[in-house]
Amino acid sequence: MKEVNGVNRFRSMTPPASTATLVLPVPTAAVAHAERVPTTRRYLMCEPRHFTVEYSINPWMDPTRPVDTALAVAQWNALVATYESLGHRVERIDPVDGLPDMVFAANSGTVIGGRVLGARFRAPQRAAEADHYRRWFLDHGYRDVVMPTRVNEAEGDLTWTGEVLLAGTGFRTDPAAHAEAQEALGVPVVSLSLVDPAYYHLDVALVVLSEATRARPAHIAYYPGAFSPGTRSALRRLYPDAVLATEADAACLGLNAVSDGRNVVLAAEATHLAAELEAHGYTPHPVDISELRKSGGGPKCCTMELRG
């Protein structure tokens, strides 16, 4: 069993300044509107058996607002059923009493090519989640598991495009964690700055709709208002054909979506975004995540992708 301690591994690291000048291929109209091809995915999820809102660590959370845990479980089960109906495989990690946000599996690990970079939470209320997920990986045969030394909220702020890792910062994940991610996962990183507290994680402001292949670049959707001016400029340069979400799309966590390259699972209220996705060749699958949204979560927050 190999578990790597990030302290020694990252001691001499410097931030990957070179990633700022990375140039990706610009799609032609013909490529941009080619047929969307789904790929089978494998996900790790955690039932919200202990879900509640008993503290506030983001603008969505209000401990005085009633929470229906049974409804949250029902919505989560419907999300799992949606994935499985699309041919995807869902692995499960047991929930732990006293960790109400453990349902948001995306925040506890980033997996690319079988390599795992764990999480280090900013909020002390969630800190214990990281070790439960670390043990799950080790118990399920993963041998290259690295725990970060910097605050790193995993797929909440790290989004794989098939070519580069888009890395958010501004509210949760430490900018220095981007360098750790590059070293641990062995992929190039592009840093993106978030500026709106309502969109405190990258995965509530941006979604990869289709990953890059040899034949075509990655395709994304994002809400420009969530990002700094420089980051908006960088995103326009990197992804000129991106789907631009409206404020209403973002406000219902419509961008906290999961795509397999054709099928996009997203919040039912994001009707404008769903129509835009259809116009771009995708098939939207609306789901009700209203109860989980009380903690600032949606389909993507509940879903960690196990790649490789």
Automatic annotation (TrEMBL):
<dbReference type="GO" id="GO:0006525">
    <property type="term" value="P:arginine metabolic process"/>
</dbReference>
<comment type="similarity">
    <text>Belongs to the DDAH family.</text>
</comment>
<keyword id="KW-0378">Hydrolase</keyword>
<dbReference type="GO" id="GO:0045429">
    <property type="term" value="P:positive regulation of nitric oxide biosynthetic process"/>
</dbReference>
<dbReference type="GO" id="GO:0016597">
    <property type="term" value="F:amino acid binding"/>
</dbReference>
<protein>
    <submittedName>
        <fullName>NG,NG-dimethylarginine dimethylaminohydrolase 1</fullName>
        <ecNumber>3.5.3.18</ecNumber>
    </submittedName>
</protein>
<dbReference type="GO" id="GO:0000052">
    <property type="term" value="P:citrulline metabolic process"/>
</dbReference>
<dbReference type="GO" id="GO:0016403">
    <property type="term" value="F:dimethylargininase activity"/>
</dbReference>
<feature type="active site" description="Proton donor">
    <location>
        <position position="201"/>
    </location>
</feature>
<dbReference type="InterPro" id="IPR033199">
    <property type="entry name" value="DDAH-like"/>
</dbReference>
<feature type="active site" description="Nucleophile">
    <location>
        <position position="301"/>
    </location>
</feature>
